[in-house]
Structures are given as C-alpha cells and as structure tokens.
Design brief:
heterodimer; A: 406 residues; 59% helix; B: 286 residues; D-Maltodextrin-Binding Protein, domain 2; 2 domains; 6-stranded mixed sheet; 10 helices; 44% helix; 21% strand
C-alpha cells in the first residue's frame, strides 16, 4: 500500500514537473512571439516615419536648404520622445545633423535609411530609438505569465493533493490502524492459545496418568473390548500432548526474539539430516548437500527450520525405493533461494495453499506420522526472517520446497 | 538710360516738394526708415529703443517706418521722404550713386570693428589652394544681393579669372548657413560666407581659401532737408550711445554684438564702390 502511495505521489510530482516545463515553454514561446510582433510593429512604424521624414529631408536638400534640414530634424526628433539619437550623414561622411537626447535607457534599437536627393546625391539617416518601453511591457507580461503559471500549478497541485493524495493517505492510515489492531488481536490470541495449551497439559496428564494406573492396576481384569478402549484413550492422549507441544512450539517461534548471526547452513543441514536419518531411517537414503551455504539468520530457528523441512522430506520418501534428498541454492533475481528436494510421494499442486497452514494435512490416511504443524513452523520461521516459502510438486515424483531469508 | 534718369530726377523734385510740405505739416516729427531685412514686427521691436532714445535727446518725436523693399528704401531716403535711414553698405553705395551726397550720422561697430569681412571656403580636406583653381568647380553663393555671400566673393573670383561661365555650376542657396553646409556636405566644391558663419562651421570641417577685403559696416544717413544743427545733435546722440548701459542695450537690440556707433565718411565705402562698379561692368549687378 505505501508503495502505491509513493507511486501515486511520484506520478503527481512528475505530472507537476511536466506541467511546469510545458508552462515555461509556452510562456517563453508567447513572450518571444510578442517581442517579435512588437519589434516588427516598431520596424513598420519607423519605416513609415522614415518615409515621411525622408521626403522632407529630400525636398529640403534638393532645394539646397541644409539649414532647414537641421531645423526639421531637431524639431522632428524633439517631438518623438523615443528617439534618442538622430544623425544625417552625407555621402562624404559629413554629419549634417547629429541630434541626441539625454537618456538613461539600457535598451535601444537602431534604424537606418538612405534618402536620395538632387540629381544623384544621397544621405544616410540613422535613428536610435529608446526601446525601454517595449522592454518594460515585455517584462510586465513575463511577470504576469509567471505569476499566472505559478498560481495554476499551485492550484492544480492543491486540487490533486485534495482529490488524490489525501484520500489515499487516509486509506493507508486506516489500513495501518486495522493492521495494528489485527496484530494486537493476533498476539492476544496467541497468548490465549499458549496459556490454554499450557493449561490443557495438566488435565491431559491426569487422563494419561490415570489410564496408565488403570492399566497397571486393573489391566488383567479387563476384557478385550475394554482393553481396546483404554488403549484408544492412551493413544488419543498422547496425540493431544503432541498437538499441544506443537502449538506451544509454534507460539514460541512466533514470539521468540531473533538473534542474527552468520549461520553455516550446510553444516547445520548435515547434522540435522544425520540425526533424523539415525532416528527414522527405514532403508538406505541418498543425500546431497551443497557446500558453503550460509545465511544471516537466527541459528536456533534455522536449525528448527531445516529439521522440519528435512524431516518432511524423510517422512514422504518412506515409500520410495531409493530415497534421494538434496539441499542447495539457486539464484533468483539476485536473491539466494534455498531448496530441499525429495523424490517422495509429492502432492497435488491444487492443494499447495494448505501446505503451510497449521494442522492441515495433505495425506490424511494416517500413513505418515506427525500433526501437520512442521511446515507451518517452517513457514513462520521464514516469515520471521522476512523471507518467503513456496513449493513445487508432482504427485509421485517428489517435491521441492523453496525458501528465502530476507 | 540718361533720359530715364532725367525724368526720374523731375519726379524726385516733385516728390521732394511733397515731402517738404509734409515736413511743414508735421514739423516736429522725424521718420526713421529701416530696410526690410527682417519682419516688420521684429524690426519695430529692435529699433524702438533707439527711436525713443533719439526722441529724448533731440526733443522731437522720432517714429519708425519699415520700407516695402530695398529699392523703395533707397529711393525714399534719396528723395528725402525719410528723415533718417538705416542702410546696408551696398544700399548706401547705390544711394550715393543715384542721389548724391547725404549727411552721414554714424556707422555701427560690431565687436569693436566698424568693418566686416567674408570668407571663400572649401572643405578642410579639399586639394584647392588658390581661387584660380576654382575654374570648373561647383560654387555656392548665398543671396544674389548679399554683400559677403555673393557680391564681394564674385568680384574676387572675377579678379582671379573665375567667372560664371568657367565655373562648372553655381547656385544661390539663400543663406550663409546653407552655403557652409552645402560645402561641408560635398554638394559644392566651394562657397562664400560671412566671417561669423565661417567660424561657426570651421570646426566641422571648413577651410578659408581667401578672405574678402574689410568692408565698412551698416550706417545711418539723414535727409538733405534736415537742419544741420539737428543733424549734429542726432550724430552726437549716436556717437555717445556706447557710453552708458542704456545705450549698450539699444545697440544690442539693433544688432547682437554691436558695441558702438562710430564716425563715418563717404570714402569708407570706396572699396565696395569699386567692387560694385566692376561687377556692373560684367553684368553681375545692374
């Protein structure tokens, strides 16, 4: 759920950045276009002015009235506030007019036009115009656009925050809360479970103890049916004691504090296998353990994990002619995956969900010993280490149990 | 020509009688005539302080009259229809030629000098160094009637063998400023301007090729019919103008830079007279 939240937040952020980039681009384009338009208008306007003024200059010069040109230029330029400099230069480089106005403008534009007069004479008119107004207009426009864009982004961000992120965050908080109370309930249940199991031992001991006494004291007086009933009481009591032990074990594992160190998995597996084979071997079993397997884990729990998995393998290869058990690792997406493989009876993959649940047995005909807690304990240990466990099997061809530890 | 001038003489006498009658009618009023070298408004404003000053000095009202044109102005004073007249040097020479001697009051001095000069100018980087080299070149004059932007320079060109015919072209551009600018712009190879205009444009790239002779400045003359005693009082009033601040203001009002009115005699205009005579001979002036 948090990753979904982060994903959404990342999308929102990327969207905002993309929008911002788009707005910057759009603003820049708009400003450039405006600037271009304004300059073009100014160019046209200036050309028009040039035409009018040029006629005046040409007429006066054709009349050889140079003084009139001087006067006309100064009064014309004087009337136009944005002209900061006006020069009229004759063909021989003489500056007939050099008008300039004091100004503190930082941006100006230059214009030039050749004006013909007389038979074959011409002068150059140079104009420098103050463009700080244009500059100011563009700056104002830019500021307005930036402000509008910023407001737009902020508004959109706010709306997205309101409509998308906040409800998501609320949902996550709600989930976390539920998860927390669930965990609380589970640990309370486990506690109840533990004390209940613990408390059950006393009456159970009474049942088995007294049926033992009954057998010892009155065994010879009982007929065959009565003997059978007593035996059923004894074996049921024994089974119940096993169940209670398993429940307590599961509970212990769930609440045990982890002490992490580097564990030599190969060595532990070998010891475990040798011990179990010594206890349960019915006929020659072939085994193979990959050398040098290690893990950062709780040694005690890994021992229990291996014991349960190997015991499981030994148990379901009892009917196999030549049992083979293999322990090793494979690399998957950069993670080390441990496996325990056997060539036993296997199971139907449609029941794979039941495999790691406590007291769920896939073979209920009583031909295999145990309470069905082993793989549940294994799963709990893997889970405690932050790993995962899964299985692959083909009925009659054996199973492989995989697990990771982190 | 001779016949014409004779009949004109008769007319002048008749008019003189008329003017005399006018003087009898308005005996105590003197008319000061000014030639129309600016608009009437400007001229009346410029010469009113002088008229008021003279009125006070001689105890007789002096009024201003702006003549219709230069020729009419010369004729009016020539026929003694004006009591006092302000004249340019060329006009004075014409007046003397046609109407003979007139009592002279004073000529003006500008920046202390009672004479003025002109320059024949070329661009500073022009290869031309003598007037004779102007043959085949383009020459800019100011006004055809202007002393310094046409008449005197024209005489100097003729003396150096440069005539209207052997110039490539010549044009009258109206004003001294236009002449200077035309030469600077390279539209003409040379031009003629008064001294002040030459100095105004010298730094922008003008060079003086030649300087004209010093010509006597503008002057005041009187009608022949005026009482010699009155003439003397008028002359004294003029010659003492520069002695107080009021007089200096009157001078400045007439012409910017005028510093005094100084004594004048007919021979002060001999060089101009000679120049004009020479120009008449070649048909440049009538």
């Amino acid at each position: 759920m948090p990753s979904a939240f982060h994903r959404t937040r990342r999308s929102v952020l990327s969207f905002t950045v993309a929008l911002l980039a788009f707005l910057v681009l759009a603003d820049t384009l708009f400003i450039t276009q405006q600037s271009h338009d304004i300059h073009q208008r100014m160019q046209l306007h200036t050309e028009h002015e040039f035409d009018l003024f040029g006629h005046l200059v040409s007429d006066a010069l054709t009349r050889s009235d140079y003084a009139a040109v001087e006067q006309a230029a100064i009064s014309w330029a004087g009337d136009q506030e944005n002209i900061v400099r006006l020069k009229i230069v004759t063909n021989n480089g003489f500056e007939l007019v050099d008008y300039s106005r004091r100004h503190d403008s930082e941006s100006t534009a230059f214009f030039q036009k050749k004006i013909a007069y007389g038979d074959d004479r011409e002068v150059n008119i140079f104009i420098e115009k103050d463009t700080s107004d244009i500059h100011k207009t563009l700056t104002t426009l830019m500021v307005q656009l930036v402000v509008i864009s910023a407001v737009l982004v902020a508004l959109l961000g706010f709306v997205i925050q309101r409509t998308a992120l906040r409800p998501l965050q609320r949902e996550i908080d709600l989930h976390k809360q539920t998860e927390g109370s669930l965990r609380q309930s589970i640990s309370e249940l486990e506690l109840v479970n533990y004390s209940l199991s613990h408390d059950l031992r006393t009456p159970l001991r009474a049942i088995t103890g007294y049926s033992q006494i009954l057998r010892d004291d009155a065994g010879s007086k009982l007929n065959e049916d009565e003997q059978y009933s007593l035996k059923r009481i004894e074996s049921a009591g024994k089974y119940m004691a096993e169940l209670i032990d398993d429940i307590l074990e599961l509970s212990r594992i769930s609440s045990a504090k982890l002490s992490i160190s580097t564990v030599d998995v190969s060595k532990l597996a070998r010891q475990c296998l040798e011990n179990l084979l010594a206890q349960h071997q019915t006929h020659e079993t072939l085994w193979e353990i990959q050398e040098g397997m290690t893990a950062r884990a709780d040694r005690r729990l890994i021992d229990v994990l291996l014991e349960n998995l190997i015991d499981n393998a030994i148990k379901y290869t009892t009917g196999t002619k030549v049992p083979v058990i293999k322990l090793g690792t494979v690399e998957q997406n950069g993670n080390t995956v441990f496996y325990v493989r056997d060539n036993g009876v296997g199971f139907d993959m449609q029941f794979v969900d039941k495999l790691f649940k406590p007291f769920q047995r896939l073979h209920q005909d009583g031909s295999y010993r145990g309470t069905g807690i082993g793989l549940a304990i294994a799963a709990r240990i893997v889970e405690r280490h932050g790993g995962s466990i899964w299985a692959e099997s083909h009925p009659g061809k054996g199973s492989t149990l995989y697990f990771t530890l982190s | 020509m001779r016949k014409g001038s004779g009949s004109r003489g008769v007319l002048a006498v008749l008019l003189m009688i008329g003017a005399g009658l006018q003087n009898v009618i308005a005996q105590d009023q003197l008319v000061l005539g000014i030639h129309p070298y600016k608009t009437s408004d400007k001229l009346i404003k410029a010469y009113s302080p002088l008229a008021q000053y003279l009125t006070r000095k001689i105890g007789q009202p002096v009024t201003l009259k702006i003549s219709a044109d230069y020729q009419q102005h010369i004729d009016a004073i020539g026929r003694d229809q004006l009591d006092i007249a302000y004249l340019g040097p060329s006009s004075y020479v014409k007046l003397y030629d046609r109407y003979g001697e007139k009592p002279l009051l004073a000529r003006q001095a500008v920046h202390g000098k009672p004479t003025f000069q002109g320059k024949l100018v070329v661009p500073a980087n022009s290869p031309i160094t003598t007037l004779a080299q102007l043959k085949g070149k383009r020459f800019a004059f100011g006004d055809p009637n202007s002393t310094m932007s046409h008449l005197v320079p024209r005489y100097m060109l003729q003396s150096a063998g440069v005539t209207g015919k052997n110039l490539k072209s010549f044009r009258f551009l109206g004003s001294h400023d236009n002449v200077a600018l035309a030469v600077l712009a390279g539209d003409f190879d040379a031009g003629a301007v008064k001294e002040a205009v030459f100095y105004k444009y010298e730094t922008r790239g003008l060079r003086a090729l030649a300087t004209t002779p010093a010509l006597s400045e503008h002057l005041f003359v009187t009608s022949n019919t005026l009482d010699p005693e009155l003439i003397k009082r008028l002359r004294d009033a003029m010659l003492t103008l520069h002695q107080d601040s009021e007089g200096k203001q009157i001078l400045t009002s007439i012409k910017k830079g005028a510093t005094a009115m100084v004594p004048v005699k007919n021979s002060d205009y001999d060089n101009l007279r000679e120049i004009l005579r020479s120009l008449r001979k070649t048909g440049v002036v009538q």
